[in-house]
Amino acid sequence: MFNREDYISDSEWNRFLEFSKDLETPNVVINLKQIKYNFIKLRDSFPYAHIYYAVKSNPGEPVLKMLAELGSNFDIASRYELDKILALGVTGDRLSYGNTIKKARDIKYFYDNGVRMFATDSKDDLKAIAENAPGSRIYVRMLMENTQSADWPLSRKFGCHPDMAYDLLVMARDLGLTPYGVSFHVGSQQRDIGAWNDAIAKASYLFSSLEEEEGIRLSMINMGGGFPAHYIQPTNELETYASEITRYLHDDFGDEIPMIILEPGRSLVGDCGILTSEVILVSRKNNTALQRWVYQDSGKFNGLIETLDEAMKYPVISSKDGPGVKKGEVILAGPTCDSADIMYEDFKYKLPLSLKAGDKLYWLTTGAYTSTYASVEFNGFPPIKTYFM
Ligand SMILES: *Cc1c(COP(=O)(O)O)cnc(C)c1O
């Protein structure tokens, strides 16, 4: 199915095993060194872009602190994320309020703390920004329709049709704001690089029509996230994304491309986490069933919510894995009394036939959208703990 060696080197794997051997399960261990490596790689792949880390993907304080020191900016979605970032000494000029759904008093709170860049996709939100954050830079999020090739689509809920984006940018000017640019998100874990081509073409249309018809010169395109982490399904390398997307930009804008913002989440931190769980029970539903049910102490409610509809297929290995070990198909399930708490049933994972209670499972590529997506206390299980190495 996959090899551990394709995801993590022997030396990093051994370092992880040593670090995590006495930690209570379930837990997530984040490899900070690898996040740094990924950040530098992204920066080098898009040397012309400004990086705004999407805080929601992993808001661990050591992660934010390290990225702040590396010069990253931050995409913030709530006043709570804002407080966290400000506490690290990052100033408002390095932040954008990227959530299109916000309370008027929160807009004011961001403004009072020095934030001057705001996303929007509706008239009422834009009016609230004009009232509470006068003169700020506005970018309008465009609706993306073809996000099916993304494993975790962020479509429908966010953005507006380009015609409406046009109207909003005109309205922004008329309200005394600065019409600054457009944004889009092509869907998280987007495996079709062509999705950026369509989005950039739409942006280019808005740039030229607003300039010709309204004399509004936009400056910026916020291309959101969507770059991949390494799950089971193959993706192109980041370098391929970068060269293709750069080509699309030049095709549409010639030599003078606008200011480009990237908001990576998953691609920076996804590969940098390993979730460890403990097998609680291995059972069969009848005496001759070939498939085993493997119940273990992590599940949909404490870290693995992105297995909804089996969307994210994490590489899973066990402490019984090794050369020549015989394996069979399993259904992987969590510990709670909710029948939705099943991670994989259609997609056939194979685990050692000798697997039993007390053995460990290692879920690779769990650095993004795991621990913070966990419930507080469903069935009394505490939230999953995160450690940083
Ligand atoms: C979640 C989010 C991102 C991060 O997306 P990834 O696919 O994880 O890189 C970026 N921008 C916005 C506005 C988001 O909501």
From TrEMBL:
Alphabetized InterPro entries for the sequence: Ala_racemase/Decarboxylase_C, De-COase2_CS, De-COase2_N, De-COase2_pyr-phos_BS, Orn/DAP/Arg_de-COase, Orn_de-COase, PLP-binding_barrel
GO CC terms: cytoplasm
Entry keyword set: Lyase, Pyridoxal phosphate
Family designation: Belongs to the Orn/Lys/Arg decarboxylase class-II family.
Residue span(s) of domain Orn/DAP/Arg decarboxylase 2 N-terminal: 33-269
CC cofactor: pyridoxal 5'-phosphate
Root EC class: lyase
Claim: Transmembrane helix is one of the keywords in the record: no
Catalytic activity: L-ornithine + H(+) = putrescine + CO2
Modified-residue entries (N6-(pyridoxal phosphate)lysine), positions: 56
UniProt-annotated catalytic positions: 337 (proton donor)
GO BP term, pick one: putrescine biosynthetic process from arginine, via ornithine
UniProt pathway annotation: Amine and polyamine biosynthesis; putrescine biosynthesis via L-ornithine pathway; putrescine from L-ornithine: step 1/1
Name this polypeptide is given: ornithine decarboxylase
Lineage start: Bacteria, Pseudomonadati, Spirochaetota, Spirochaetia, Spirochaetales
Originating organism: Treponema ruminis
EC number, UniProt record: 4.1.1.17
A GO molecular-function descriptor: ornithine decarboxylase activity
